[in-house]
């Protein structure tokens, strides 16, 4: 949509331009909520908009002559942008001229020297007045003060300029009047009109009575822009019927030409050849009108003027320009397809097809260009984005014109994706299995769990925790025994493990990221407690005090290898650490008794003799197979007495010899088998896991 306003130049700041809300037919409150913005194509911000009223106002002084020079129409272009949804409106403000500049001559006075024999109708150009206003406000006419010899002729150029010329209407007579004093008034068409004056002093001279004459009143030429230096534009030809110095002609560029034109063209004063000496740029000027004068060498000199019109042909010498009207270098990775990333304005200073511009981006990128209207594109997202896949894009916007060959320009837009918390942390292992020797130090690291999160910054900051047991038994809660470092995942023991109380522990570790909301994951940790040889064997039979020995009585007629008694011991450890051996270390007569290595049975090895002692003291040591081994000693006293079997205190021994293991022995054997089986199964599972 396009809206046009017209305002005069030089309005005060805050002056009313138009009501955009009224002209768009929308509610002012909607414009304020839609983040209304006014974007200018120029470097200065001449206008502003009140979002509460929808009124566009002048914000800086506007000088039409400074903005547009002599162009008959002057426009300022704005773009009105609103969001939700994104819409653009083009506003064109025409700046109307006011009569704020009078015509001005280059000087207050000019002097002319005219030969008295000057032909009637001879023309004498006067430097024109300049008025920067346009239209009716610019220079319109000249007035010459009343006199007897000269009339005023105003010459109109193709560019609209007006050049005053004095035309000799009556012959001059130096002897009658040597000087003529005239006043030339320049007046514009404003209301009221403004004017300025220049005094003209004419000195009448004798001598040279013929001026040079060009073979045609005007010349024309056509050149392509960027023509090489020294290119011939045109060769002038003027003649003077006088002889000698009065007929010798010199060519020059008239003082009417601007300084810029003099830098572009040069003329050979002898040959009249005009050549290029500066850069010809179609985008700066399409037509040059050169004022040339031919002077003879008489005294005084006489001159003639002509015009050379040079038309410039455009070539494709300007690459397109890419201007970012709006651009955000960061973009959330969850932006929906169709999100506007940048608003791009393109232009080409060439004309015709050479000034038409096409834009495109690589189809391999998740972005596309949408043409909003002539010379404006929007860069949009075309698909879903994933920062973890690609975090940064360099989007190259290529602009090409339709020239032959075409010219192009490439602009790189760096776009960084902002992370959102769309990835849950992942553990390196689904489960962990740990072997821990009992009696471990407090605070020792049992295992380190590790997880990774492909998100960035706060969304990838991980925190570890041990989940409390879900059961009602607080003794099963792993947080009683273990703690975990919240950032590095190291699991440490709060207390030493005791294999005799706990052989296996299982718990979950949860990891959560720092996003909002946080995402979580879990892993399972199996802890197998490995037994250490920390328990010495305990003798359960025979029972005796610390400082006393257990007595057994046997008959002197006992027959070997009769069972005297059996030492029964247990070890709270497991495996080899509970594998017991029995040894007879000391005895009154080592050859009389023997102890079974594994069962602890004490038997007599030979028949008693009269020479044998009546009392025998035996020291039996029970030792486990741990490393280092632990042991316990028990002392037994065997008395040889002539008493009936019913009086012997070795009835337990006879019961043991009669068959059937004591209940305590059976319990020990079963416990040892179960503990060994559980340990072997756990070690085998862990070995398979490692493989």
TrEMBL record:
Main location: membrane
Gene Ontology terms for molecular function: calcium ion binding
A GO CC term attached to the entry: plasma membrane
Stored InterPro entries: Cadherin-like_dom, Cadherin-like_sf, Cadherin_CS, Cadherin_N, Protocadherin/Cadherin-CA
Domain Cadherin residues, every copy: 6-105, 106-214, 215-322, 323-427, 428-539, 546-664
Membrane topology of the entry: Single-pass type I membrane protein
SUPFAM superfamilies: Cadherin-like
Cellular localisation: Cell membrane
Keywords attached to this entry: Calcium, Cell adhesion, Cell membrane, Glycoprotein, Membrane, Repeat, Signal, Transmembrane, Transmembrane helix
Transmembrane segments: 664-688
Gene Ontology terms: biological process: homophilic cell adhesion via plasma membrane adhesion molecules
Gene3D superfamilies: Cadherins
Listed PANTHER family: CADHERIN-87A (PTHR24028), PROTOCADHERIN GAMMA SUBFAMILY C, 4 (PTHR24028:SF331)
Name of this chain's protein: Protocadherin gamma-C3
Originating species: Copsychus sechellarum
Source species taxonomy: Eukaryota, Metazoa, Chordata, Craniata, Vertebrata
């Amino acid at each position: 949509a396009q809206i046009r306003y017209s305002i005069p130049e030089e309005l005060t700041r805050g002056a009313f331009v138009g009501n955009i809300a009224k002209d768009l037919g929308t509610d002012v409150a909607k414009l304020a909520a839609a983040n209304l913005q006014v974007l200018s194509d120029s470097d200065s911000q001449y206008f502003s908009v009140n979002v509460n009223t929808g009124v566009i106002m002048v914000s800086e002084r506007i000088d039409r002559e400074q903005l547009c020079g002599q162009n008959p129409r002057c426009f300022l272009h704005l773009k009105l942008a609103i969001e939700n949804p994104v819409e653009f409106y083009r506003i064109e403000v025409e700046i109307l001229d006011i009569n704020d500049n009078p015509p001005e001559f280059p000087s207050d006075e000019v002097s002319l020297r005219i030969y008295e024999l000057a032909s009637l109708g001879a023309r004498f150009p006067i430097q024109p007045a300049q008025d920067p206003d346009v239209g009716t406000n610019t220079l319109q006419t000249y007035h010459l003060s009343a006199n007897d010899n000269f009339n005023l002729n105003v010459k109109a150029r193709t560019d609209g300029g007006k050049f005053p010329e004095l035309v000799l209407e009556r012959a001059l007579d130096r002897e009658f009047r040597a000087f003529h004093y005239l006043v030339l008034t320049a007046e514009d068409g404003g209301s009221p009109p403004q004017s300025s004056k220049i005094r003209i002093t004419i000195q009448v001279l004798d001598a040279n009575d013929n001026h040079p004459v060009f073979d045609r009143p005007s010349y024309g030429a056509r050149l392509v822009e960027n023509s090489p230096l020294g290119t011939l534009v045109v060769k002038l030809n003027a003649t003077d019927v006088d002889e000698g110095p009065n007929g010798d002609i010199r060519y020059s560029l008239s003082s009417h030409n601007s300084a810029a034109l003099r830098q572009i063209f040069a003329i050979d004063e002898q040959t009249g050849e005009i050549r290029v000496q500066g850069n010809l740029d179609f985008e700066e000027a399409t037509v040059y009108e050169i004022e040339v004068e031919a002077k003879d060498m008489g005294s005084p000199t006489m001159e003639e003027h002509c015009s050379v019109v040079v038309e410039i042909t455009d070539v494709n010498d300007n690459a397109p320009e890419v201007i970012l009207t709006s651009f955000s270098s960061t973009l959330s990775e969850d932006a929906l397809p169709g999100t506007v990333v940048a608003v791009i304005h393109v232009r080409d200073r060439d004309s015709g097809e050479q000034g038409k511009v096409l834009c495109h981006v690589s189809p391999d990128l998740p972005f596309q260009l949408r043409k909003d209207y002539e010379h404006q594109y929007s860069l949009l997202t075309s698909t879903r984005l994933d920062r973890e896949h690609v975090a940064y894009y360099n989007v190259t916007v290529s602009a090409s014109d339709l020239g032959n060959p075409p010219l192009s320009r490439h602009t790189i837009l760096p776009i960084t994706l902002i992370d959102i918390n769309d990835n849950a942390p992942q553990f390196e292992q689904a489960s962990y299995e740990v072997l821990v020797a009992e009696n471990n130090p407090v605070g020792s690291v049992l295992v380190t769990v590790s997880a990774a999160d492909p998100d960035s910054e706060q969304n990838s900051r991980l925190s570890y925790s041990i989940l409390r047991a879900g059961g009602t038994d607080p003794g099963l809660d792993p947080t009683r025994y273990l703690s975990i470092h919240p950032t590095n995942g190291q699991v440490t023991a709060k207390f030493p493990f005791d294999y005799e109380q706990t052989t296996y522990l299982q718990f979950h570790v949860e990891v959560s990221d720092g996003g909002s909301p946080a995402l979580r994951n879990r892993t399972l940790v199996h802890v197998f407690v490995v037994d250490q040889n920390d328990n010495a064997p305990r003798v359960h039979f025979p029972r005796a005090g610390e400082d006393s020995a257990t007595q057994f009585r046997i008959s002197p007629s006992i027959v070997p290898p009769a069972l005297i008694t059996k030492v029964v011991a247990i070890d709270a450890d497991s495996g080899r650490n509970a594998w017991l051996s029995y040894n007879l270390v000391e005895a009154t007569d080592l050859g009389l008794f023997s102890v079974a290595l594994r069962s602890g049975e004490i038997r007599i090895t030979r028949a008693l003799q009269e020479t044998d002692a009546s009392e025998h003291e035996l020291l039996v040591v029970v030792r486990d197979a741990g490393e280092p081994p632990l042991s316990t000693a028990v002392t037994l006293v065997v008395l040889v007495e002539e008493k009936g079997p019913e009086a012997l205190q070795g009835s337990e021994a006879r019961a043991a010899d009669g068959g059937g293991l004591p209940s305590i022995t059976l319990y020990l054997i079963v416990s040892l088998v179960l503990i060994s089986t559980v340990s072997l199964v756990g070690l085998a599972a862990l070995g398979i896991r490692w493989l």
